[in-house]
């Protein structure tokens, strides 16, 4: 299987859609497996046509001056089946109740396909509106749900990102995207204990990263990773540049544990709490990853002291 992860950016929705068409013409023979649009406002959702592939829309403004960006996941001759879940939301009250219903419905959906949340789900993304006030409810519901699925420290969790993002659905405080896989594959979880601590030590339940092996291929999903040490402490409080370097160090350690490196990274999503830090961070990424496939978004991280976070996929 060959995977390609591309971020395309354009000033507005119409020109972005034109750019997508040109891009997909170049990669005839590939199939679009999943898309996620990063919007500057929920109103932009109305400008997009309906699509037949799983598509997620989330308000996380690009910070490079453009109003919208898209992540497109392409596959060709897949050796495993990729089962994407996009834009799952709930109409219940509160982030805790919404998260609980989202997870329960997703688990039932997987069971109906003969799949298991515990064994087949390899990656989740939780977007939390007003994260400083709603994150705790999401974390509580996720932890309790995972315990009911026997996802505990002695078994395993799931690679994940929990980040600020506003769903386009009115009243939704939490939105989930997820990826499950079906076929002949194995999973290996990544910890980098010299740099990072297990997440359950500070009350959250996700894996730092996961490596999938299938056929002759390897894919590594690195969860949302910030400037943290192996005791769970925020490192370099107040210094976004120093936090960026420590974040890179942590991600590099996880990639190395998975038998990979920056040269294998196909996509990166970078989240900044403060838009004004873009002028400091963007040159760092441009220098280290010239021509790299990444987008920098305004999206506060789950702790106020964390100024930056990133995730990536390596193949």
Account of the 3D structure:
The protein is α+β, with helices and mostly antiparallel strands. The chain is 26% helix and 34% strand. It has six helices and 15 strands. The chain has a six-stranded mixed sheet with strand order 10-11-12-15-13-14, with helices on one face. Strands 1-4-2-3-8 form a five-stranded mixed sheet. A four-stranded mixed sheet has the order 5-9-6-7. Strand 13 (265-272), helix 6 (278-288) and strand 14 (294-298) form a beta-alpha-beta unit. Helix 2 (95-112) crosses helix 4. It starts with a strand and ends with a strand. The model is unreliable at 1-5 (pLDDT under 50).
Widest sheet: strand ordering: 10-11-12-15-13-14
Distance between the ends: 10 Å
Number of helices: 6
Main sheet?
Answer: 6 strands, mixed
Radius of gyration: 18 Å
Mean pLDDT comes to: 94
Q: What fraction of the residues are assigned to beta strands by DSSP?
A: 25-35%
Helical content band: 25-40%
Low-confidence stretches: 1-5
Shape: globular
Q: Briefly note the structural class of the backbone.
A: alpha+beta
Brief overview:
This protein has 315 residues and is α+β, with helices and mostly antiparallel strands. It has six helices and 15 strands. The protein starts with a strand and ends with a strand.
